[in-house]
Amino acid sequence: MTVDQILKAKGRNVYSIFSNLTVYDALKVMGDKNIGAILIIDNNVLKGILSERDYARKIVLKDKSSKETFVHEIMESNVFTVKLSDNLDDCMQLMSEKRIRHLPVLEDGIVVGIISISDVVKAIIEIQKDTIQHLNSYISQ
Prior knowledge:
With about 140 residues, the protein is of the alpha+beta class. Helix content is about 50%, strand content about 20%. It is built from six helices and five strands; from the N terminus they run αβαββαααββα. It has a three-stranded mixed sheet with strand order 1-2-3. α5 (about 90-100) crosses α6. It is elongated and about 65 Å long. Keywords: CBS domain. InterPro entries: CBS_dom, CBS_dom_sf, CBSX3_CBS_dom, Diverse_CBS-Domain. This is CBS domain-containing protein. It holds the Pfam family CBS.
């Protein structure tokens, strides 16, 4: 299964903000959209990603104010991305090795979607269910 197949099933909604907004503004959007991370896109270019983990570690634990800190100050700017044609095993390996939970999907430098670790796990579970069903059918014959 590929990233494209996951996006076809879940949709290609991408929520993003500008890097010059406050962390508080970013958190409001994340809360409204019920998402755990948001992409930072300026002038149609992916500049970074901000996650709940970033907020906890870079604002709360450092006793900073989310209303006075800008997104560009705490966002992760070294963003790992995937392509529509990448397969699930590669995505899972990248997420595991880099300890990340979200992967923006780029085609020709443009963000076309985002997948999360739960999207990948759900897809793998479905593949395994299909495999088990086929094996059960084969054994039953």
